[in-house]
Amino acid sequence: MAGKVNNCFLVNAPAGSGKTTQIKAMIRQFIIDNPKDNILCITYTKRAADELSKDIHTPNVFIGTIHSFLHAFMKRYFAHKDVLNLYYKMFEDAIKKRISNPEADEHIAASNEKYKEKYGDLSYEIIQKNIKIIAYNESSFSSLYYGGLSHDDLIIFSKLIVDTFPVIRKRISSKYQYIFIDEYQDTTADVLNIFYDSVAETKSQLYLFGDKMQQIYKNYDGSFEDRFALFDTSRVLNINYRSVPEIVNLLNKIYNDTKYDQDSSEKMKQVQPTIHPQVIICDNIEDELLRIKENDPDTLVLYLLNKERFAAIGSLNLYQAFDSMDKYAFGRAYSPVDVLTSDYDENPDPLIKLLYLIVDIYYNYENRLYGLIIQKLRNHTALVNKDGWYITSHSGKQKLHDNLNVIFSVLINKEKTIADLLTALKTTSIIQPSYLEGILEDEEYRSVLDVPTNEILAMVNYLNQPKISTQHGVKGESHNSVVFVADDSTRNPVVHMYRFFEMWGQLDISLSSFQQFYYSYTKELYNLQISIGSKINDLVKESYMTNEKSIIERAVLIRQRFGKDPIFSFLCAENYERFLAKPGVTKAKDCFKENTVYGVLSAYKLFYVGCSRARKNLIILIDRSKLKGDIELQKRKFATLGFVVS
């Protein structure tokens, strides 16, 4: 183990390997063996944190997101004079620019005026005087005038603090004897460096769990690769408890790296698939889906985008309304999908919690389970008035019956909206007035109130029997039969699935080789942007002409460095040839576009993730009209992996 750091462990946990179970088992064992030690477990989402913390009840264990940990751990330093000075140093230019250029943005202008109204004037010196403490904003935006840090800035600033004051690193390793980072592949290099620098060569132990093939978010930039090489990787989770051998063999061939090969569990080796894995190239995806669903109604359909997923559920307007809300924007503790796919008991959103409860009561009412209705109302006293559940007479029962009829008549009316349903709830006085007022006064719910009530019913029906999901939103989920609908996306996440199929048919690639090229290539693109002082996407003719010589020189250097790399040759070389043959701003943007590579890499990962959701049966649906290049080569590739192609 020469050169390794003896207290840092990287545990590769491919699809279906029981990662969550393993982490919980290790935490429990550490609690038993060392009851006085403190354990820290960092997860990527609040939902994952909730899952890990189930049945673990001890004050010595902190399980939460990186933002919740950094906020809790760092806030004791946020009023310190030296840390405040560090804040001013980091954000001085941004604050001064915001003060001096209010006309650049109407929101900045309004913010400036609001500050002047509160403090009488606005200047950098006044801001320095007024900020007494730094805080976490719990939003995607920093409040620079008030010391409020966004999601991203909390991480960046915390990294700056521990780098500037190394004693804080020692306090992390002194406080926690065991540190777990779940889904390390979706963790920023800054976070990884904070914990590595704090723990390496101490008595504490650092465990990273995850799988680079299941990387979904574009957070990690590749800058931690040298340090990954120092971790002990002897501990592996190489048993797949989810899928039958045919599926596991497919996954191994897609991964194309024997270091990460899995074997099916003994239990799954006894399960017989109904069909062999299939690739169906068709002219009409929806017609093919109907045929498949007729044969197997319980098939889970994986779409690329949430838009298609919720449209198929029948709740597209509901999803889009929540997707537009700032409180559920990217990077927040909860996403729109988290909100819409959690049952009412665990739902983090007060409106959806209420609506799902009403639908659940409706179904109990339809089944004449009246006692269960009273019990559910009694269990939610924060939402429900006492008169709604405390019934002592026949007239009380009749009143509840009449009120529920009023509410349900709105719920099942396709012409009614969520606003109409809330009005009915307010009129019948079953729900606490203060609870309803909190919802109605929240401006972010305005678009949600216009959504038809039947979309709420559709969501609850889906939750009772989920048969639709997205390829990138199903980590940890699985189903007996899965249909993967191949598609492209120019939005987040950028996915070039059909370009991936074309390249895959011609090249023998693995994740490690693809990522190594991607990180090296994007580093060159970053260096180019630094040298010209502009993002490639922001290039205009004037800035291009000023930097044309250095841009051309960089293009030549990049082509020389990567010219023999088969991935570069396939994805990028043609754009470089066009640019160098006739340089110009448009061709420069095409030449240096990062998504040319990233879109194909993300497609590779999502294809693996989608296939890994199947327990027994797997079908890939491909739109014939979207296929690129030599189709026969692609068919042969699929057949080599173990698919039956038709």
Structural description of this entry:
- There is one protein chain.
- This protein is an alpha/beta fold and 646 residues long.
- 53% of the residues lie in helices and 11% in strands.
- The chain has 32 helices and 17 strands.
- Strands 12-11-13-16-10-17 form a 6-stranded parallel sheet, with helices on both faces. A 5-stranded parallel sheet has the order 1-7-6-2-3, with helices on both faces.
- The longest helix is centred in the C-terminal third of the chain and has 22 residues, at 511-532.
- It is globular.
Count of runs of 4 or more consecutive helical residues: 32
Gap between N and C termini, in Å?
Answer: 49 Å
Instruction: Find the structural class using helix and strand composition.
Output: alpha/beta
Mean pLDDT: 90
In what range is the share of β-strand residues? 5-15%
Helical proportion?
40-55%
Contiguous runs where pLDDT drops below 50 for at least 5 residues:
471-476
Rg (C-alpha, Å): 27 Å
Give me the count of strands: 17
Shape: globular
- How is the largest sheet built, in terms of strand order? 12-11-13-16-10-17
- What about the largest sheet? 6 strands, parallel
